[in-house]
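step 4 of 6: structure.
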Amino acid sequence: MRAPPERFRNLRAALRLWGETLRALGRSPGAVIGGVLFGLIIAASLFFPWVYTIDPLAQDLLARLAPPFWQEGGSLAHPLGTDNLGRDVLVRILYGSRVSLMVGFASVLVACGAGIALGLVSGYYGGRADSLIMRLADVFMAYPFMLLTISVIAVLGNSIFNLILVLGLSDWVTYARTIRGSVLSIKEKEFVLAAKSAGTCHHTILMRHVFPNVLSPILVLGTVRVANIIIWESGLSFLGMGVPPPMPTWGRMLAEGRVYIMDSWWLVTLPGLAIMLTILSINLLGDGLRDALDPRLRNIPR
Amino acid sequence: MVELLEVRRLVKHFPVRRGFLGRQTATVHAVDDVSFSLGENETLGLVGESGCGKSTTGFSILRLIEPTSGEVRFRGQNILALDKERMRGLRRHMQIVFQDPFGSLNPRLTVERIIEEPLLNYETIGGSGRRERVAEALELVGLLPEHMRRFPHEFSGGQRQRICVARALVLRPSLVVGDEPVSALDVSVRAQVLNLMVKLQRRLNLSYLFISHDLAVIRYVSHRVGVMYLGQIVELAEAKTLYARPLHPYTRALLSAVPVPDPRRGRTRILLKGDVPSPMNPPAGCRFHPRCPEMMPPCREHPPLMRIAAAGHIVRCHLYDGGEPWNPIPAACNGSAAQHSTAGGTL
């Protein structure tokens, strides 16, 4: 198939622009460490179940509460030990990572989508739409988020879909406000006036000139928010309001292991460590991204 | 003869809103009764201190901000009365070049996409035809067609301003408003861009409304010059006449402040006292009277009219009250102008 080359020229140009950001990202050691770690976590959660083929629900009742392999009594059959029902901890952590990452990313996507749309309209068109959206945002801000989540889950039942929806919708305000602020400053830029005097319609100005220029703060915010949502999801699972039972999640592993904390430390420590490493890697990446996207910080030698 | 652009009694007031309910507490008189005309192939320079309403005038003419009242006639048609669609159709004939070469180009678009945008809006030509026009526009302003694949941040300030000029000219407009187009540039680059604009004017039959605070720049490019003070034109004349024989006390003070590159030539500087009053609360009478070295009693109370002090030399000052009042509205004009003319010159 022969595609006309000009179709790809804009794409190539855009890639070149992002390439510069990536190079800047590569110069910050924190971002590299975070990125590599986060990449490993994603790769593990995606591919490990094919390599490490143990059923996360299978109970090995003879090997209940087995310690990790390096401790006395541990074995390589269950490298990170087993829980009180003899289920393998390693495979449960790996399956739990899928839940956490999926809820994290999907909720951020929902929140971003709603927040970007409302923020763009609010900031660009102003007036009544702006007042309406911002007052709605105030209402959401004033309502305690945990209470909202718990009551919605209690009414709708706890499924992974409801969880994503409620976490996403309770978080749109931050994005909408960030976007609105950036739009307000961008729309006063002379290139927007130039587009107006060149006869470009509002819709095109919004999508071509405003939106791409307000994207970078959202990218940074979204990254950091993934980490937040993962913590919230773990918290809700810990309280029994998260993803429903047979599916292993980090939060519920913590909750179930709590009883055995005195003699089986690995039941709470290891899922906790998984949460910590994931959050750490995402935050390192987010910090690096913020510096890389801010042209004022880009060329400062460290 | 119908002039390319006629501006009549243009007024722009910005409301100042404060407090919880956003009540209007004051009004900024950014532009107050500005009239001038601009012929084909002509450059009118608007000069004045910052905050005197030069840029607001330029933006109002293109309806980038909506003026409060007045008329802007483009080839005889009052564009302030046009609806959205017809205004959009007219925009292709009038373009603008901004001051800040870093803020006026979208950093996320290549030069090609920046310059082709006006073409996309007004002309139905295919991709290759568009690229040709973009290359043509780049060559016109002294850049290379290869440059179209680059991003704005890969250019210097002067080159960026050339890109802005290329974007303004790609639709082949007849009027270009230059809002301080060279003020942000280094002196050497400034001369290049100015020469480019002058050269292009001859080649493409352009009319410029050239806004600047720099008297030397204005003198270099303009055929006629309007001096603005606190939202009003105080003197309007041929460039040569204005620089040789300034009539308004404000213009004289401005010109006496220009450095002369000859240390032996003595000069008398007219030093103005005080600051420019706030446009939120302009002085009664003549707006310049609190600072005027030649203030007379009537200046405190009666705003002066624009009067013809000499042939083609119009001044807003009581010193020239002997001259004929200047009426920017020709007698043979349609109805909408009539009500303005009866409103008198006592704004």
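step 5 of 6: annotate
 - The two ends of chain A are 48 Å apart (CA to CA).
 - Chain A touches chain B at residues 4, 6, 9-10, 13-14, 16-17, 189-191, 193-200, 208-209, 212-213 (CB under 8 Å).
step 6 of 6: archive
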